[in-house]
Amino acid sequence: MEEQKKKKQKEEEDFKAWKEMNKKNKEEVDEDPVDEALLDEDDDEYSDQEYPYEGKVYMKHWDESEKMWTILDPVDWTEVGLPDDEGGINFN
After folding, report:
1. pLDDT mean over 42-47
2. pTM attached to this predicted model
3. Ordered alpha helix ranges (H), 1-92
């Protein structure tokens, strides 16, 4: 019986220590605020943009899954190609 009390007391102490450790970790994380302005700048950097080419205006779109820019047809939003370095389009 005495062993069970000691075991239960040890478990409670371990739980309290674990809880206190997590509380300290949370406080450390909360002390480092996120700069919302920097997040907004990143969003603007990857916003869709008009992309004129040979008299037609396409959309330059950041493909998050591929981590690259693509060119979309603005009518049906299908990918038509990739932008090149000279302002053109490498069509699919």
Report:
1. 73
2. 0.53
3. 2-30, 36-45
